[in-house]
């Protein structure tokens, strides 16, 4: 029997004017849930490069001041998936968020921590439960 291992995902906080960017997921685990821009860390990819690439690919936005925050251990029991999610912090540099990948995201919006839409994607929910943000 082949061993299974967790995958490495990334969620990136993009801050602007006291708010951060969230998108409504489509066509994947967590469909209909609100998540940070992000995706998978590629082989030999630096964390900052992954954050910059994923935000640009998904939203069209450029980011700056990229830094590591924390990780969560996310077990999606129903879907049979397991991720280690790396959370990065960044600041908006330029651009207007757009739905660049309409098959993966329904919409993007700027939100504050005290006014979050629901339901939240498991990694973000797990992070908020840790009260690190």
Task: Explain this structure.
Strands 1, 2, 3, 4, 5, 6 and 7 form a seven-stranded mixed beta sheet that branches. The protein has one domain: Alpha-Beta Complex (Nucleoside Triphosphate Pyrophosphohydrolase), CATH 3.90.79. It has helices at residues 47-59, 122-130; strands at residues 7-16, 19-25, 34-35, 38-40, 62-76, 81-94, 105-111. 33% of the residues are buried. The model has no long low-confidence stretch (mean pLDDT 95). By secondary structure, the chain is an alpha+beta fold. The chain has two helices and seven strands, in the order E-E-E-E-H-E-E-E-H.
SSE inventory with pairings:
Blueprint: E1 7-16, E2 19-25, E3 34-35, E4 38-40, H1 47-59, E5 62-76, E6 81-94, E7 105-111, H2 122-130
Parallel strand pairs: 1-6
Antiparallel strand pairs: 1-2, 1-4, 2-3, 2-7, 5-6
